[in-house]
Specification:
152 residues; alpha+beta; four-stranded antiparallel β-sheet; three-stranded antiparallel β-sheet
Length: 152
């Protein structure tokens, strides 16, 4: 089971029906059930649909060394602030962490992080130059804020 939250507010529960209750109802598998607090949902804005872009998505990965004390939340916050402060970076649609690695045989106080970036302009196909400029700006922001070093 899991407790559900929306913007740090308790929203409800999600989980499998207790096996005894599933057996009493003669169910072959326990169904997943949930309970939501409608009052919490009533005060949240409803998501608005957006038109899908006909332009292709560009995927880039970025791997870098970062001091051990820097968390992914710190990295994500820096990236979000950088993107919000630069209109050219609005083409960045998603960022996902896909790897954290530490060299166990080394006494280094660093870890490697690898991020997956999805970029898309709703109007035009992105060229390599535009994508590389965006990635360079993001790397510079991370270097300035967290002293990261790009992995080869």
């Amino acid at each position: 089971s899991a407790r559900l939250f929306l913007n740090d507010k308790p929203l409800g529960w999600l989980g499998e029906l207790h096996p005894r209750l599933a057996q009493q109802a003669e169910l072959t598998q326990a169904p997943v059930v949930f309970e939501l607090d409608v009052e919490v949902l009533a005060h949240e804005p409803i998501a608005q649909p957006k038109a899908l872009s006909r332009q292709p998505m560009v995927v880039r990965d970025l791997a870098f060394w970062v001091p051990d004390g820097v968390s992914y939340a710190d990295i994500r916050k820096t990236l979000a602030q950088t993107i919000a402060s630069n209109a050219n970076l609005a083409i960045i649609k998603d960022i996902r962490l896909f790897d954290i690695w530490r060299d166990a045989s080394s006494s280094s106080q660093e870890k490697s992080m690898a991020l997956h970036f999805l970029l898309q302009d709703p109007e035009v196909t992105l060229d390599d130059s535009t994508v590389e400029q965006c990635m360079d700006q993001l790397l510079q922001a991370l270097t300035g804020a967290h002293q990261v070093r790009q992995r080869a």
